[in-house]
Design a protein that fits this description.
This protein has 340 residues and is mainly alpha-helical. The chain contains 10 helices and no strands. α6 crosses α7 (211-234) and α7 packs across α9. The radius of gyration is 57 Å and the shape is flat.
Length: 340
């Protein structure tokens, strides 16, 4: 029992701090909860209410934001689809225009397109020049016509040079370099214009020939014209011209006629097409020899006027009365100055 009492005594002594008032100086502080002001806002109830209100406001704001985002998402979704479709359409239009522009540029600016028409060996050009004076009698199947433009183009420029030579040797006076343009216009006008007309006529007559083949055929046909004009401009004999006109010009014309006959079906279409080509080709040679110089001179006189010699300045005679009057005036001025 004594032992039990001692233990209780020790326990009472250890818990005796609640009975005493151990306010001592040092590092302890006592907060009087009874003296706290209820309106200070620091109570646990107020803090809980504030936290609850803040949480409710956050939930309301989150719900409103979610609702707005949902509406905006639906609107932006529709708008995004429309914008994507418009971009795709614009891109397709741009690509189509780009392809068309690229094709047009390649068609008119790419030199590789024209290369096959001028890719020919000199020996082939020589053989075709000689063959242009040799008619072919086989007309049962279409004859082969070279589809190149190098030889015809060189023959056109050669004909231009021969016309210039003929105008110089004939003593024609040309002013301001008009002869070159006239010769080029005549030769290229005949080559391109008559080729277009023959192509149209061949289309009407159902001839199996292309525009490129007509340009090549008519261009090589000018080889006979070049030979005849070069000889007759150097040797001025009309009889020689008529002989060469019939022989060389006739051979080149027969070569063209034979090629067209082999590619045309029917007697009437052949007669119309070949008769027109032969007439135009032979008459053009006559025109270049006889009428070209006179027509060019007439055109130049019409455009520039007749040859008028330059105006010369002539000294005019001054009348003696005027000279005497001038001398008297000078003397009077001199006397007046001396008197002053």
């Amino acid at each position: 029992m004594s032992t039990t009492e001692n233990k209780n005594t020790n326990s009472t002594e250890s818990w005796g701090g609640f009975d005493d008032n151990p306010i001592q100086g040092g590092g302890s502080a006592v907060i009087d909860m009874e003296n706290m002001d209820d309106t200070s806002g620091s109570s646990f109830e107020d803090m809980g209410d504030m936290h609850q209100r803040m949480k409710e406001e956050e939930e309301v704001s989150e719900e409103a934001a979610a609702t707005e985002e949902g509406d905006d998402g639906e609107f932006l979704g529709m708008k995004g689809v429309k914008g994507q479709l418009s971009r795709q359409v614009a891109d397709e239009v741009w690509q189509a225009g780009k392809r068309q522009a690229s094709k047009a540029f390649n068609l008119y600016a790419n030199i590789d397109i024209l290369r096959p028409y001028f890719d020919v060996e000199p020996i082939q050009v020589r053989n075709r020049l000689l063959e242009s004076l040799i008619p072919v009698r086989i007309i049962n199947f279409p004859q082969k016509i070279a589809g190149e433009l190098y030889g015809p183009l060189m023959l056109v420029f050669t004909l231009v040079a021969i016309l210039l030579h003929g105008m110089k040797t004939s003593g024609t006076v040309i002013r301001e370099g008009t002869l070159m343009g006239t010769a080029i216009g005549t030769c290229f006008g005949y080559w391109l214009g008559i080729s277009s007309f023959i192509y149209f006529l061949a289309y009407l007559c159902n001839a199996q020939i292309t525009m490129l083949q007509i340009l090549s055929l008519l261009g090589y046909g000018l080889f006979g014209h070049c030979v005849v004009l070069f000889v007759t401009y150097s040797v001025h004999f009309h009889s020689l011209f008529y002989i060469l006109w019939l022989v060389i010009g006739g051979l080149s014309t027969l070569r063209m006629v034979a090629a067209l006959i082999s590619r045309t079906v029917g007697h009437t279409p052949r007669l119309i097409l070949c008769g027109t080509v032969a007439t135009l080709h032979m008459l053009f040679l006559l025109y270049l020899h006889f009428a070209y110089h006179k027509i060019v001179e007439g055109i130049l006189d019409t455009l520039e006027g007749p040859n008028v010699p330059p105006i010369q300045r002539v000294a005019r005679d001054i009348p003696e009365v005027s000279v005497a009057l001038v001398n008297a005036t000078v003397k009077m001025i001199g006397i007046t100055l001396q008197s002053h």
